[in-house]
Give the backbone structure.
Amino acid sequence: MLDTVLFVVFPYVAVALAVAVGLLRYYKDRFSFSSQSSEFLEKRELFWGSVPWHYGVVIILIAHLLAFLFPGLWGALVADPIRLYTLEIIGLALALLTIVGMVMLIARRIQRPRVFSVTTTLDWVLLVTLLAQVVLGFWVALMFRWGSDWYIRTAVPWLRSLVLLQPDIRFITALPWIVKLHMLGGFVLVALFPFTRLVHIFTVPVTYLWRPYQVVIWNRRPGPSGRRS
Ligand code: HEM
């Protein structure tokens, strides 16, 4: 019964919340649909936390997604032990990168009074949940080996059953609780999405890649050196 609530009811509630509240926030309060950058308050520590965090987590999540979308191809990829070991080692290294990045980001918010003062309770909830999720992922990968293989036989059919609206939790009920906690954590983050800065995932300024350069027209007279500033 508990498994049904956690792995069937909760995921659907989380996704429904994310879509409904996310859309409502986008149309009612579009200005808040951002990471609400604190770069102008402190830049250096932000760089050393944010870069490892984002590179690590984005690559890991792409791997989660690829294995979910193409379990056949992924299965063929990890069928060879050398490729499996290589993937697992890369995964663990990236997980460490995310943990270091997130610890630095949290430390920055605690240590810098100006950044601390713009951090809300929900920000703390999100940061701690993200840290817990990557620590759990690292722990699962380390203690329950070859997750890149058993993932496609457990998590993938369960997630697929949810997408097809024919929920089937038999694939995951026998898994160790720590693995289940990591899976649940994924949906806790989905539920937190519309209420937090996580919404910036959908406002990444990718248009920078193709939009025209910014045109700056100086309005001041040039100084003696010919410079305008
Ligand atoms: C329902 C959603 C999710 C499921 C079913 C899931 C499942 C798994 C599994 C089975 C592993 C072990 C892979 C291995 O041994 O190599 C893993 C690793 C990991 N997961 Fe997740 N995960 C989910 C969501 C997330 C999310 C949202 C994050 C980050 C915010 C995350 C971060 C990690 C990290 C950092 C690792 C360790 C790196 C690795 O070796 O792949 N996971 N996950």
